[in-house]
Amino acid sequence: MTANTRRTIAKNNNDLLHGKLDELMGGLLKKRGVKQALAAVESGDGSFQWSRFGSSTKPDKLKSGVDFPFWIASVTKLFIAASILKLEEKKLLSIDSPAYEYLAQDLIEGLHCTKSGVDNSNRITLRHLLSHTSGLPDYIEIKPKGGKSLFAMVLENGDRSWSVMDSMQIVKEAKSPLFDPQPFEKEVNKARYSDTNFQLLIAVIEEVTNKPIATVFKEMFYKPLNLRRTFHPGTTPLDPATPEPIPVWIGDHLLDKPLAMKSFGDLYSTPADLFTFMRSLNSGTVFDNPDTANLMKEKWNRFGFLISPIAPGWPIEYGLGMMRFELPRFVSPFKTVPAVIGHTGASGAWLFYCPVNDICLVGTVSQVEAAAAPFRFIPKALNLLSNYLG
Fold first, then answer.
1. Which domain does 162 fall in, by range?
2. Which of 106, 115, 220, 371 is most buried (most C-beta within 10 Å)?
């Protein structure tokens, strides 16, 4: 077989794969409530690249594309976890130390307190927070008796902001820890996804560095990695020509809540920036010691079954600020779909890396009511990539 023949076969395969991925994109746009979708795939060596932006609305009503920033929601947890581990490298903290060593006592005291008065707050370490094994409930979803959750109030009663003290007060008043923090010597730990954990980690980062989280991220990630279109709501990205982000929807309503978006503490970013970040995270080059990256994936705890519009559950496993997702064999009995590591977000955003195929996948449906979309798209995309790229 000549070199020209091999190139022709490779090009034909790539063309076929592009077409199949385009069909998957069409499927995303058919999901209920999805107004637009963005998806991109890139191989580790850059030999294969595919990206698409699609809209189910009229083009003149929505001017966006694959180079536009989108709300990555909880994909931000990868950045937060990496920040904590970088600070540990500098010996500014230890992930096995109690959180109270880095935070004001009035923030921590009573946080993990039962209705009978048992307070385990001082037992919670940074590792518990990173792995969602603290037992703290999610402040966003807590629904007081006779009241509404913070998430529902934001949606129904207009824009609002809150501080970390406000969100922790919600948890304290609920007095409803999910389980006790457990020693990490155990083979398996109970885990339940909770944004409360990462709100506390943001507070730790700001306290230890004496800088706002946006400044910390700029110094740790944006400038060193040249992430020019990644930024917190209300801040300015490195690229002054960055367009307005792709809008976020909840059903048929735009999530036009700038105060709330800032309070969530989650980023806007682009596929190009996220590919760069994931490559540096996977290789460990984002850290002083590349082996530090292995801490994020050295132990996986599986989430239980959840009925939640925004919190992920079974069969997802969680390390330190990182998800691992693999379809159970009974769901795909005839073909094994390789596992991916990374994270998703409540807006149907995703950033995953597949070690088996050396492939990175990024995207969003920008629809809170379709938060589970990544877990349907990713296995189908991986099947196609395995078939055509080997």
1. 28-389
2. 371
